[in-house]
Amino acid sequence: MYGPVAPASDALDKATTSLAARYGTFVCEDLNVAGTTTNRRLTADGYDFVVVASRLPVDRVEDTADKTGWRHSPGGLVTALEPIMRKMDGAWIGWPGDAGPAPEPFEESGIHLVGIGLSAEEVRDFYEGMCNATLWPLYHDVIAPPAFRRPWWDAYVTVNQRFAQAAAEQAAKGATVWVHDYQLQLVPGMLRELRDDLRIGFFNHIPFPGYEIFAQLPWRRRIVEGLLGADLLGFQRQADATNFLRAARRAAGLPTKGSVVHAGARDVRAASFPIAIDAAALAEIARREDVKERAREIRQLLGQPERVLLGIDRLDYTKGIRHRLKAYGELRREGRLGPETVLIQVASPSRERVEQYRLLRDEVEVIVGRINGEFGELGNPPINYLHQSFPRDEMAALYLAGDVMLVTPLRDGMNLVAKEYVACRNDESGALVLSEFTGAADELNGAFLVNPHDIDGMKDAIIRAATVSPREARRRMRVMRRRVFDYDVAHWATSFLDTLREVPEPVPGRA
Ligand code: G6P
After folding, report:
1. Mutate to test the pocket of ligand 1, among 159, 203, 314, 416 (most ligand atoms within 8 A of CB)
2. What are phi and psi of 510, to 5 degrees?
3. Which CATH code, of 3.20.20.70, 3.40.50.2000, 3.40.630.30, 3.40.50.1000, is assigned to 279-487?
4. Is the pLDDT of residue 189 over 90?
């Protein structure tokens, strides 16, 4: 077991806290369960704003044999929170993404980072198991069958406790702690047990399922109670918040009124805060001459087709990649689309050790191979398939190169790719085909909405998007751009934190 370890007793906890208070920053040595010592850095005052997310906003890069470096990975969440982190003296607690001991806390781009270590068994049972083979499929409408394994649950409890302990150590008195996503649903409750002076927010990035599905979870009550340790629970859509409120009533037997759960002495609010992107920053990248030139080059490499359809997804069964490929294959077979319309499908590698993801990769690659085999010409495949991840600039160039963006998940909390495409289309051209089952569909009114299960309906929508008049395309894109720029990621973070701040001051002892 790695990472910050719970002190052996309350007494030790109190002792370390009072030492920290007296001597400021110091390093204390703890014996971890595996029997090796780790250094744990405590600060006297702690941080006023603490983000707790399953991942750190950095990637580990091996510089030399004995030196590990870190590269800033500018995901949406970091971009959103960076300015606030700097202003509020923030710390970020997360997992570096591989098995092994936690790195020492370090600074990167002005943010204090605290790594949580996971052992190889915990990566298997917590990350691959409970997070990505139980909760992920369960919360996405059981598109893949969730597996319920008790050792996975035990690892989930242990790892959540480790994150909660680290947050309790890093947070200053009365600090705001913002916990993120389905991997850490027990952290709010565990953290409140450790520190009743904190203001705790939680945001769920993925859907929260209807009660009939959620009820399958053997640990449903524990999850609901864990979440209710927060003062404010944020969800992507109102429907997700409503599903949670129902779960609070049914699984935990608690009364609710409007958006509030009466959890004993505390009231907890559940509301929607649709996540967004840094639209202005992305639009700026897409405006750069080198990025535009790269977009032209991409089209050239494809043989200057009349039309480029584009799909960009993590290779995940929730994304509807197979349904999309089926629709495109049938359109080619029926001659409704010809060689003048090519598809770029980027499927970035994800969770490759989880069985469902391995199966999906095989299925997708068989379908791509069949379509390319059947309709391709030498040097001109109908589908350009890339099982790779790309840096931001290349993504922006791809968005510029795509005339029609295909976003067809079977279920998706939000889908930021849809918003990114819109942000990049500075000339207001382009069309978005968007699944009804994404959070983004609630916001992007100019999209061509589809039910991805209805292959014929999806085919018609692709044709309509591909042949829309430039005038109509511009009208639709303008509506979507207004939304994406007005409700950007800064607005998202601020509205969540402002609402959290409205919660009455915590009264210590009244948990
Ligand atoms: C989704 C989840 C995130 C997760 C990301 C990548 O967007 O909401 O919490 O980090 O997928 O998945 P991974 O398993 O690689 O962290």
Report:
1. 314
2. -105, 55
3. 3.40.50.2000
4. yes
